[in-house]
Write the structure tokens for this entry.
Amino acid sequence: MSYIAKNTPVLKMRKTLLGLASATLLMTAFASQASAVEVQEVTSDGGITAWLIEDHLNPLLTVDFAFKGAGSATDPAGKDGLANMVSGLIDEGAGEMDSQTFRTEMEDRSISISFDAGRDDFSGSMVTLTRERDTAIDLLRLALTEPRFDDEAVERIRAQVMSGLRRAETDPGDIAGKAFFKSIFGDHPYANPVSGTIASVSSLNANDFREFVRHAMARDNLVIGVAGDITAEELGPLLDEAFGGLPEKSDLPAIPEVTPKFGGIEVIQQDIPQSQAVWGQKGIARKDPDFYAAYIMNYILGGGGFSSRLTEEVREKRGLAYGIYSYLADMDKAELMAGGVATRNDAIGQSLSIIGDEWQKMKDKGVSQEELDNAKSYLTGAFPLRFTSLGNLSGMLVGMQMQDLGMDFLDKRNSLVEAVTLDDVNRVAGELLDPANVTVTVVGKPEGDLAF
Amino acid sequence: MTFPTRSPISLFARGPIGLLAAILMILSPHLAGAAVFSPQTMTLDNGMQVVLVENHRAPVVTHMVWYKVGSADETEGVSGIAHFLEHLMFKGTKDIAPGDFSKIVARNGGNDNAFTSWDYTGYFQNIARDRLEMVMKMEADRMQNLQLTDDVVLPERDVIIEERRSRIDNNPGALLGEQMRAALYMAHPYGRSIIGWLNEMETLGTDDALAFYHKWYAPNNAILVVAGDITMDQLKPLAEKYYGAIPAGDVATRHRVKEPTQHAPRKVTLTDPRVGQSSMSRYYLAPSYNSDNADQAAPLEVLSEILGSGTTSRFFRSLVVDQSIGTSAGTFYDPVAVDLASFGLYAVPRDGVELADLEKAVDAEIAKVVENGVTEEELARAKQKLLDSAVFARDSLSAAARTLGEALAVGLTVDQVESWPDRINAVTIEQVNAAAKSVFDDKRSVTGWLQPPEGGPVSGMPTAPVIGEQEVH
């Protein structure tokens, strides 16, 4: 008997302090073992392809999808926040239905359809009971191909976005993330907040939104993952119905190449009792043959929660923070290894100094065989935990396609982890970690010297 | 696109690492369906309740132990001790060294965490089925053999103080929520901050934690909930071996004072330069499934669905869509509590709209429902949505465990959980209208305003000059 958020069967990815929901981080945690899960490729008569995991445990269906390269990094100059605004507007009225009519159809039938803009991609998700499947698919089709962008909805969503932007202007985590991205990406679009600025969002209009829909959402940049109570035969026609009306080809500007610039500490003064710090350095591409070695190294350093060295040194031994973490992030044009911590103002310097020492120690001395074994047993053993809800499954199928991991990824993933040797991890730690070139952004009233 | 949600913070967890969000989201699925989770139950000889929900999708289990004690059971002056003890339960026994608990779970491919609310404290692991026995053994061990010394307790006290700063003190909205609850409950301990008042947290020590532990932690005050790929035939011998072997303890009984009659509406305004977006919210005292007028709980769930759930609810439609004065608005109500619950609402103004005007519009919506009631159509829609939500809850392994564990921890029964759809189905329009008239009593309410000072909010300002590439080693 509990009640709170409805329509939350799909757990959202954890956002880090930097607001980067790292698909890489999640994907690689989908270890594989005892994978009783079969991934099917379904291609419709109309040529639309989706990956499917059939699961008839409950009368539910989840459809996740993404349009590659249609994220905020391709927002035109002066129109920052465009992709994000569209993600809020596209399910606010379509076809003959105005916003309230459309949303009443959804909510009364317990259908949830939502969209989200990241820096690189534009994604969406639909969850429905089997009972309402046909209506859900029809609403999805309408949202994708006939969104209305009525004035009422545009002004309302604009007000919501502005409200979020105003809140972000004083939120220490948001301030830190924004400054950090600005610092490392400079004039590159990755530096711009996904939701834009008050000035840019004020200027967006229905023509911009229509333009986006025309160029950004097409069959050639679409990937789809489906999980739940449906067969491959049933899915084919539904794919055509939902996605068949999209244009064949997208027309998106390429995201410019960029080499992020790392190094230096920036302090942003805010009168709060606890300083929030984010930091980052060069990362490693998901496709790099050393990715899993780096992933295991990061798990041991700061990715492994209570098993990580950073948690041990900063939280467990010294009580300097509640949360501390590091992670690998892989964007289309850049990779990062980043982290975050929050410590009272008079001790944030101590936290940063300990973190810097750990960074250096990992670079110089690497990990022990025992640490490696423990990391592997967690990463491989925790795999089946990812198969406990449909939303996880369909989201994973999208990620596997986006990152080109192959249909057999679920079966081979644990062997990729197992294959990493102690020498691999220690070599990669030495090559990747770069404590001399780490960018640190601190928001708060830090006291004393700060050094990483 | 995501908008900030405004559910009040009602849980504090030991670790922020990924799992907390899941807890907050999952804790409250709506239930329904002829049978909701179809759990199996038994009781060990020492009085510990056992609940199993089978789910064979993946070869994993969620293993939870819930204690029927929370921050509302603390004595005066040691606020935060329930949550502090929850952290300290990871600090070792004679067999498990301090800090090793979670590492052992991780080495075995599992995730673990713990959480504290006003009425309960819970510990859980998600892990492969064949490691269930191992985590049961460790969980049973710390139920009776916790060892604490100052050298692990004192650094952890700093951790919970940092947790407070992260989640409350650095966040004016959370600070306001804390003040509002303190005002809503004039006598009842639900007005207490779960994580604790800072001045009291600073004085908590090893003796306080051990005293609380010995007073409340025993099998006869605990509930074992397992969900996943296991049968009762497999679970029963394990539960008997590890938890059944622990003798029943002399557990304190919950002694909660009654909230006195309230005579005046209260208003709490937090003005802070860190407020980038102002907002208003209000709590009304309301019945729970355990309190007086418990028969109003299901009607109030329906009422909350009609008034404030989703973008086609009355509040959203009126304030955000039709009048265009808000950017979001809604209601929340959770009747799963040992004592009184609260019915909450919130609204966020559009730029240029005064909180006073927004509040007037909120009051008009409330007056409308009190005066005219809801419609049969609204009732039917709300019921259907609530009933459907159970199917979604069933799909998540941990949702079943959390829902059942929470209900039992506040003194409800498995049957009450399983019959929830029937109760929702049976709600009549007269009951909803009567519940609305009863709950919206200003004298039993607190209204909160969150706003920047005159002159507007203060954003973070970069210091000049920005520190360059120096001292970086």
About this structure: Chain A touches chain B through 111 residues (CB under 8 Å). Chain A has two domains: 36-243, 264-444.
